[in-house]
Amino acid sequence: LAASLGACASATSLPAPPGAEPPPSLKEAFGRLMPFGSAVTPEQLRGPEAAFIARHFNVLVAENVMKPEFLAPKQEGQYEFGPADELVNFALARGMKVRGHTLLWHRQMPAWFFKEGNAVVSRAMLIARVERYIADVVGHFKGRVYAWDVVNEAVTVDEPDAQADANGLRIAEFYKIIGPEYIDIAFRAAAKADPDALLFYNDYETQNPKKVALVSRLVSGLKARGVKIDGIGHQAHCSAGHPGVADFERAIDAYARLGVTQHVTELDIALNHNLMDTTVTAATPELLARQARRYGELVSLFLRKRAQVTALLVWGIGDSYTWLTSWPVKRFEAPLLFDTA
Ligand code: G3I
Fold it and tell me: Which parts of the chain have pLDDT scores under 50?
Protein backbone atom coordinates (compact mmCIF):
# COMPACT_ATOMS: atom_id res chain seq x y z
CA LEU A 1 0.00 0.00 0.00
CA ALA A 2 2.65 2.51 1.00
CA ALA A 3 4.53 1.82 -2.20
CA SER A 4 1.39 2.15 -4.29
CA LEU A 5 0.42 5.37 -2.60
CA GLY A 6 3.96 6.62 -2.88
CA ALA A 7 3.88 5.96 -6.59
CA CYS A 8 0.48 7.62 -6.97
CA ALA A 9 1.52 10.57 -4.91
CA SER A 10 4.87 11.08 -6.56
CA ALA A 11 3.18 10.92 -9.94
CA THR A 12 1.06 13.93 -9.03
CA SER A 13 1.94 17.34 -7.72
CA LEU A 14 0.68 16.32 -4.29
CA PRO A 15 3.01 16.46 -1.29
CA ALA A 16 4.25 13.01 -0.29
CA PRO A 17 1.98 11.13 2.12
CA PRO A 18 2.71 12.23 5.70
CA GLY A 19 4.36 9.08 7.03
CA ALA A 20 3.09 5.55 7.12
CA GLU A 21 0.56 5.83 9.99
CA PRO A 22 -2.26 6.57 9.65
CA PRO A 23 -2.49 6.03 5.89
CA PRO A 24 -3.69 9.13 4.11
CA SER A 25 -7.25 9.25 2.90
CA LEU A 26 -7.13 8.60 -0.84
CA LYS A 27 -10.30 10.64 -1.15
CA GLU A 28 -8.56 13.68 0.30
CA ALA A 29 -5.31 13.12 -1.61
CA PHE A 30 -6.51 11.93 -4.97
CA GLY A 31 -10.27 12.33 -4.88
CA ARG A 32 -10.04 16.10 -4.88
CA LEU A 33 -8.33 15.91 -8.28
CA MET A 34 -11.00 13.69 -9.79
CA PRO A 35 -13.83 11.56 -8.38
CA PHE A 36 -12.15 8.45 -6.97
CA GLY A 37 -14.08 5.31 -6.23
CA SER A 38 -14.36 1.58 -5.83
CA ALA A 39 -16.63 -1.32 -6.58
CA VAL A 40 -18.28 -2.47 -3.36
CA THR A 41 -20.81 -4.98 -2.08
CA PRO A 42 -23.70 -4.16 0.28
CA GLU A 43 -22.17 -6.55 2.85
CA GLN A 44 -19.05 -4.38 3.04
CA LEU A 45 -21.20 -1.34 3.82
CA ARG A 46 -22.72 -3.15 6.80
CA GLY A 47 -19.42 -4.40 8.20
CA PRO A 48 -16.16 -3.07 9.58
CA GLU A 49 -15.17 -1.97 6.07
CA ALA A 50 -17.84 0.76 6.03
CA ALA A 51 -15.71 3.39 7.76
CA PHE A 52 -12.74 2.50 5.55
CA ILE A 53 -14.84 2.93 2.41
CA ALA A 54 -16.20 6.28 3.56
CA ARG A 55 -12.66 7.45 4.39
CA HIS A 56 -11.05 6.61 1.07
CA PHE A 57 -13.61 6.92 -1.72
CA ASN A 58 -16.02 9.52 -3.04
CA VAL A 59 -17.69 7.41 -5.76
CA LEU A 60 -19.16 3.93 -5.38
CA VAL A 61 -20.24 1.35 -7.95
CA ALA A 62 -21.92 -1.97 -7.21
CA GLU A 63 -19.68 -4.91 -8.07
CA ASN A 64 -22.79 -6.99 -8.82
CA VAL A 65 -26.06 -5.87 -7.24
CA MET A 66 -27.09 -3.38 -9.94
CA LYS A 67 -26.76 -5.96 -12.71
CA PRO A 68 -29.98 -7.33 -14.23
CA GLU A 69 -29.70 -10.80 -12.68
CA PHE A 70 -29.73 -9.12 -9.26
CA LEU A 71 -32.27 -6.33 -9.89
CA ALA A 72 -34.83 -8.51 -11.70
CA PRO A 73 -33.89 -12.12 -10.96
CA LYS A 74 -37.27 -13.79 -11.34
CA GLN A 75 -39.54 -12.18 -13.89
CA GLU A 76 -40.27 -9.08 -15.92
CA GLY A 77 -41.46 -6.11 -13.88
CA GLN A 78 -40.54 -7.66 -10.52
CA TYR A 79 -37.59 -5.87 -8.99
CA GLU A 80 -35.40 -6.45 -5.99
CA PHE A 81 -33.97 -3.00 -5.41
CA GLY A 82 -33.14 -3.51 -1.69
CA PRO A 83 -29.37 -4.16 -1.79
CA ALA A 84 -28.78 -1.60 -4.55
CA ASP A 85 -30.82 1.02 -2.68
CA GLU A 86 -28.79 0.32 0.43
CA LEU A 87 -25.59 1.01 -1.49
CA VAL A 88 -26.95 4.18 -3.11
CA ASN A 89 -28.28 5.47 0.22
CA PHE A 90 -24.94 4.75 1.95
CA ALA A 91 -23.12 6.76 -0.72
CA LEU A 92 -25.49 9.72 -0.92
CA ALA A 93 -25.67 10.04 2.89
CA ARG A 94 -21.90 10.54 2.87
CA GLY A 95 -21.75 12.95 -0.05
CA MET A 96 -20.45 10.31 -2.47
CA LYS A 97 -21.50 9.85 -6.09
CA VAL A 98 -22.76 6.56 -7.56
CA ARG A 99 -21.97 4.98 -10.94
CA GLY A 100 -24.58 2.53 -12.21
CA HIS A 101 -23.21 -0.74 -13.59
CA THR A 102 -24.61 -2.11 -15.86
CA LEU A 103 -27.88 -2.03 -17.83
CA LEU A 104 -27.17 -4.42 -20.73
CA TRP A 105 -24.42 -6.99 -20.88
CA HIS A 106 -24.09 -10.44 -22.43
CA ARG A 107 -23.39 -11.82 -18.94
CA GLN A 108 -25.38 -11.75 -15.69
CA MET A 109 -28.76 -11.38 -17.43
CA PRO A 110 -31.63 -13.31 -15.81
CA ALA A 111 -32.84 -16.26 -17.94
CA TRP A 112 -36.40 -14.88 -18.32
CA PHE A 113 -35.12 -11.92 -20.31
CA PHE A 114 -34.56 -14.00 -23.44
CA LYS A 115 -37.52 -16.37 -23.13
CA GLU A 116 -41.12 -16.21 -24.23
CA GLY A 117 -42.76 -19.28 -22.75
CA ASN A 118 -40.42 -22.08 -23.68
CA ALA A 119 -39.28 -20.40 -26.88
CA VAL A 120 -36.73 -17.71 -27.59
CA VAL A 121 -38.27 -14.27 -27.10
CA SER A 122 -39.39 -12.46 -30.26
CA ARG A 123 -37.57 -9.36 -31.47
CA ALA A 124 -40.54 -7.09 -30.70
CA MET A 125 -40.93 -8.45 -27.19
CA LEU A 126 -37.23 -8.19 -26.42
CA ILE A 127 -37.19 -4.56 -27.55
CA ALA A 128 -40.18 -3.86 -25.31
CA ARG A 129 -38.42 -5.62 -22.41
CA VAL A 130 -35.22 -3.65 -22.87
CA GLU A 131 -37.18 -0.39 -22.95
CA ARG A 132 -39.24 -1.30 -19.91
CA TYR A 133 -36.28 -2.60 -17.90
CA ILE A 134 -34.22 0.52 -18.56
CA ALA A 135 -37.15 2.88 -17.93
CA ASP A 136 -37.87 1.17 -14.61
CA VAL A 137 -34.29 0.85 -13.38
CA VAL A 138 -32.93 4.21 -14.52
CA GLY A 139 -36.22 5.78 -13.41
CA HIS A 140 -35.89 4.19 -9.97
CA PHE A 141 -32.41 5.65 -9.47
CA LYS A 142 -33.13 8.94 -11.27
CA GLY A 143 -31.18 11.81 -9.78
CA ARG A 144 -29.21 9.42 -7.53
CA VAL A 145 -26.96 7.62 -10.03
CA TYR A 146 -24.87 10.19 -11.86
CA ALA A 147 -23.44 7.95 -14.59
CA TRP A 148 -24.69 4.69 -16.10
CA ASP A 149 -22.83 1.99 -17.98
CA VAL A 150 -25.68 1.56 -20.45
CA VAL A 151 -24.07 -1.12 -22.57
CA ASN A 152 -21.11 -3.20 -21.44
CA GLU A 153 -18.63 -5.12 -23.61
CA ALA A 154 -20.55 -5.04 -26.92
CA VAL A 155 -17.37 -4.92 -29.00
CA THR A 156 -14.93 -7.81 -29.26
CA VAL A 157 -11.69 -8.24 -31.16
CA ASP A 158 -9.46 -11.28 -31.60
CA GLU A 159 -11.21 -13.40 -28.99
CA PRO A 160 -11.40 -17.03 -30.06
CA ASP A 161 -14.49 -17.77 -27.97
CA ALA A 162 -16.51 -14.75 -29.19
CA GLN A 163 -18.17 -14.03 -32.53
CA ALA A 164 -18.33 -10.55 -34.00
CA ASP A 165 -19.90 -8.84 -37.01
CA ALA A 166 -17.98 -6.70 -39.50
CA ASN A 167 -18.12 -3.76 -37.08
CA GLY A 168 -16.71 -5.83 -34.23
CA LEU A 169 -20.08 -6.03 -32.48
CA ARG A 170 -20.36 -9.14 -30.33
CA ILE A 171 -22.89 -11.63 -31.62
CA ALA A 172 -24.60 -12.61 -28.37
CA GLU A 173 -28.31 -12.70 -27.42
CA PHE A 174 -29.23 -9.02 -27.76
CA TYR A 175 -27.49 -8.82 -31.12
CA LYS A 176 -28.86 -12.13 -32.36
CA ILE A 177 -32.47 -11.31 -31.49
CA ILE A 178 -32.65 -7.54 -32.05
CA GLY A 179 -29.67 -6.80 -34.27
CA PRO A 180 -27.11 -4.03 -33.72
CA GLU A 181 -29.93 -1.51 -33.08
CA TYR A 182 -30.22 -2.83 -29.51
CA ILE A 183 -27.46 -0.41 -28.55
CA ASP A 184 -29.35 2.64 -29.87
CA ILE A 185 -32.51 1.39 -28.19
CA ALA A 186 -30.75 1.06 -24.84
CA PHE A 187 -29.15 4.51 -24.94
CA ARG A 188 -32.37 6.18 -26.05
CA ALA A 189 -34.32 4.50 -23.24
CA ALA A 190 -31.74 5.56 -20.65
CA ALA A 191 -31.72 9.18 -21.86
CA LYS A 192 -35.50 9.28 -21.68
CA ALA A 193 -35.60 7.85 -18.15
CA ASP A 194 -32.99 10.25 -16.71
CA PRO A 195 -31.99 13.06 -19.06
CA ASP A 196 -29.40 14.31 -16.55
CA ALA A 197 -27.48 11.06 -16.06
CA LEU A 198 -24.20 10.62 -17.95
CA LEU A 199 -24.52 7.66 -20.31
CA PHE A 200 -21.48 5.45 -20.95
CA TYR A 201 -20.35 2.68 -23.21
CA ASN A 202 -18.05 0.53 -21.02
CA ASP A 203 -15.53 -2.08 -22.15
CA TYR A 204 -12.19 -3.82 -21.47
CA GLU A 205 -9.06 -3.52 -23.62
CA THR A 206 -10.27 -0.10 -24.72
CA GLN A 207 -6.66 0.83 -25.44
CA ASN A 208 -6.14 -1.98 -27.98
CA PRO A 209 -5.73 -0.09 -31.29
CA LYS A 210 -8.19 -2.38 -33.10
CA LYS A 211 -10.74 -1.87 -30.36
CA VAL A 212 -10.16 1.89 -30.38
CA ALA A 213 -11.18 1.90 -34.04
CA LEU A 214 -14.29 -0.22 -33.46
CA VAL A 215 -15.45 1.54 -30.30
CA SER A 216 -14.90 4.88 -32.03
CA ARG A 217 -17.02 3.68 -34.95
CA LEU A 218 -19.76 2.60 -32.53
CA VAL A 219 -19.75 5.90 -30.66
CA SER A 220 -19.62 8.10 -33.74
CA GLY A 221 -22.48 6.08 -35.24
CA LEU A 222 -24.61 6.66 -32.15
CA LYS A 223 -23.86 10.37 -32.28
CA ALA A 224 -24.55 10.59 -36.02
CA ARG A 225 -27.97 9.03 -35.41
CA GLY A 226 -28.72 11.58 -32.71
CA VAL A 227 -28.44 9.10 -29.82
CA LYS A 228 -27.17 10.63 -26.57
CA ILE A 229 -23.91 9.10 -25.36
CA ASP A 230 -21.73 11.03 -22.92
CA GLY A 231 -18.78 8.83 -22.22
CA ILE A 232 -16.56 5.83 -22.71
CA GLY A 233 -15.63 3.68 -19.72
CA HIS A 234 -12.20 2.09 -19.68
CA GLN A 235 -12.42 -0.97 -17.47
CA ALA A 236 -8.60 -0.94 -17.27
CA HIS A 237 -8.07 -4.48 -16.02
CA CYS A 238 -4.30 -4.40 -16.30
CA SER A 239 -1.51 -6.85 -15.56
CA ALA A 240 2.17 -6.83 -14.86
CA GLY A 241 3.22 -5.70 -18.32
CA HIS A 242 -0.01 -4.91 -20.13
CA PRO A 243 -1.23 -2.56 -21.47
CA GLY A 244 1.51 -0.15 -22.43
CA VAL A 245 1.00 3.38 -21.16
CA ALA A 246 1.58 4.75 -24.67
CA ASP A 247 -1.32 2.68 -26.06
CA PHE A 248 -3.55 4.01 -23.31
CA GLU A 249 -2.54 7.57 -24.07
CA ARG A 250 -3.23 7.16 -27.79
CA ALA A 251 -6.65 5.67 -26.98
CA ILE A 252 -7.59 8.51 -24.63
CA ASP A 253 -6.62 11.03 -27.31
CA ALA A 254 -8.60 9.16 -29.99
CA TYR A 255 -11.75 8.98 -27.87
CA ALA A 256 -11.39 12.63 -26.90
CA ARG A 257 -11.79 13.52 -30.57
CA LEU A 258 -15.28 11.96 -30.48
CA GLY A 259 -16.43 14.62 -28.04
CA VAL A 260 -17.20 12.28 -25.12
CA THR A 261 -15.80 12.22 -21.62
CA GLN A 262 -13.99 9.15 -20.23
CA HIS A 263 -14.04 7.29 -16.91
CA VAL A 264 -11.61 4.64 -15.74
CA THR A 265 -14.23 2.31 -14.34
CA GLU A 266 -12.64 -0.92 -13.04
CA LEU A 267 -8.91 -0.43 -12.51
CA ASP A 268 -6.87 -3.28 -11.10
CA ILE A 269 -3.33 -4.43 -11.84
CA ALA A 270 -2.76 -8.17 -11.62
CA LEU A 271 0.62 -9.51 -10.54
CA ASN A 272 0.29 -12.36 -13.06
CA HIS A 273 0.81 -11.60 -16.72
CA ASN A 274 -2.64 -12.54 -18.00
CA LEU A 275 -5.91 -14.09 -16.87
CA MET A 276 -4.68 -17.68 -17.37
CA ASP A 277 -1.24 -17.15 -15.79
CA THR A 278 -0.90 -18.85 -12.40
CA THR A 279 2.83 -18.50 -11.87
CA VAL A 280 2.64 -15.90 -9.10
CA THR A 281 1.92 -17.53 -5.75
CA ALA A 282 2.86 -14.73 -3.35
CA ALA A 283 3.09 -10.94 -3.29
CA THR A 284 6.86 -10.55 -3.07
CA PRO A 285 8.36 -7.11 -2.39
CA GLU A 286 9.72 -7.08 -5.97
CA LEU A 287 6.32 -7.80 -7.51
CA LEU A 288 4.63 -5.20 -5.32
CA ALA A 289 7.25 -2.63 -6.24
CA ARG A 290 6.71 -3.32 -9.94
CA GLN A 291 2.95 -3.12 -9.44
CA ALA A 292 3.34 0.18 -7.57
CA ARG A 293 5.31 1.59 -10.49
CA ARG A 294 2.54 0.44 -12.86
CA TYR A 295 -0.11 2.13 -10.69
CA GLY A 296 2.04 5.24 -10.65
CA GLU A 297 2.52 5.31 -14.43
CA LEU A 298 -1.12 4.70 -15.25
CA VAL A 299 -2.57 7.03 -12.64
CA SER A 300 -0.12 9.70 -13.65
CA LEU A 301 -1.34 9.37 -17.26
CA PHE A 302 -4.98 9.63 -16.16
CA LEU A 303 -4.16 12.73 -14.14
CA ARG A 304 -2.29 14.33 -17.01
CA LYS A 305 -5.34 13.67 -19.15
CA ARG A 306 -7.84 14.90 -16.62
CA ALA A 307 -9.53 17.21 -19.08
CA GLN A 308 -10.65 13.92 -20.69
CA VAL A 309 -10.55 11.36 -17.87
CA THR A 310 -13.07 12.58 -15.32
CA ALA A 311 -13.35 9.73 -12.78
CA LEU A 312 -11.19 6.83 -11.61
CA LEU A 313 -12.57 3.74 -9.90
CA VAL A 314 -10.79 0.60 -8.75
CA TRP A 315 -12.55 -2.77 -8.97
CA GLY A 316 -12.53 -3.63 -5.28
CA ILE A 317 -11.58 -2.15 -1.92
CA GLY A 318 -8.79 -4.64 -1.23
CA ASP A 319 -7.06 -7.82 -2.32
CA SER A 320 -9.41 -10.02 -0.34
CA TYR A 321 -12.22 -8.90 -2.65
CA THR A 322 -11.06 -9.43 -6.20
CA TRP A 323 -12.60 -11.37 -9.06
CA LEU A 324 -9.07 -12.20 -10.24
CA THR A 325 -8.56 -15.01 -7.70
CA SER A 326 -11.54 -16.97 -9.00
CA TRP A 327 -12.02 -16.19 -12.70
CA PRO A 328 -11.29 -17.74 -15.13
CA VAL A 329 -9.07 -19.94 -12.93
CA LYS A 330 -8.49 -20.18 -9.20
CA ARG A 331 -5.13 -18.67 -8.31
CA PHE A 332 -3.28 -16.23 -6.09
CA GLU A 333 -3.68 -12.53 -6.92
CA ALA A 334 -3.18 -9.22 -5.15
CA PRO A 335 -4.20 -6.61 -7.75
CA LEU A 336 -5.66 -3.79 -5.66
CA LEU A 337 -4.39 -0.80 -3.70
CA PHE A 338 -4.98 -2.22 -0.24
CA ASP A 339 -3.90 -5.61 1.13
CA THR A 340 -7.20 -6.11 2.88
CA ALA A 341 -9.88 -3.77 4.09
O1 G3I B 1 -25.13 -14.87 -7.03
C2 G3I B 1 -24.46 -16.11 -6.89
C3 G3I B 1 -24.77 -16.68 -5.54
O4 G3I B 1 -26.14 -16.95 -5.45
C5 G3I B 1 -23.93 -17.93 -5.32
O6 G3I B 1 -24.09 -18.38 -4.01
C7 G3I B 1 -22.45 -17.64 -5.56
C8 G3I B 1 -21.60 -18.89 -5.47
O9 G3I B 1 -20.41 -18.73 -6.21
O10 G3I B 1 -22.30 -17.12 -6.84
C11 G3I B 1 -22.97 -15.90 -7.02
O12 G3I B 1 -22.72 -15.39 -8.28
C13 G3I B 1 -21.44 -14.83 -8.46
C14 G3I B 1 -21.61 -13.35 -8.76
O15 G3I B 1 -20.37 -12.80 -9.08
C16 G3I B 1 -22.20 -12.58 -7.60
O17 G3I B 1 -21.42 -12.72 -6.46
C18 G3I B 1 -20.79 -15.54 -9.63
O19 G3I B 1 -20.51 -16.89 -9.28
C20 G3I B 1 -19.52 -14.82 -10.02
O21 G3I B 1 -19.02 -15.39 -11.23
C22 G3I B 1 -19.82 -13.36 -10.26
O23 G3I B 1 -18.62 -12.73 -10.64
C24 G3I B 1 -18.69 -11.37 -11.00
C25 G3I B 1 -18.42 -11.22 -12.50
O26 G3I B 1 -18.40 -9.85 -12.83
C27 G3I B 1 -19.49 -11.96 -13.29
O28 G3I B 1 -19.44 -11.69 -14.60
C29 G3I B 1 -17.62 -10.63 -10.22
O30 G3I B 1 -17.98 -10.65 -8.84
C31 G3I B 1 -17.50 -9.19 -10.71
O32 G3I B 1 -16.37 -8.59 -10.12
C33 G3I B 1 -17.33 -9.17 -12.21
O34 G3I B 1 -17.29 -7.83 -12.62
C35 G3I B 1 -17.03 -7.61 -14.03
C36 G3I B 1 -17.75 -6.34 -14.41
O37 G3I B 1 -19.11 -6.43 -14.08
C38 G3I B 1 -17.57 -6.05 -15.90
N39 G3I B 1 -16.17 -6.02 -16.25
C40 G3I B 1 -15.40 -7.18 -15.86
C41 G3I B 1 -15.54 -7.42 -14.36
C42 G3I B 1 -14.67 -8.58 -13.92
O43 G3I B 1 -15.07 -9.78 -14.49
Answer: 1-17, 341
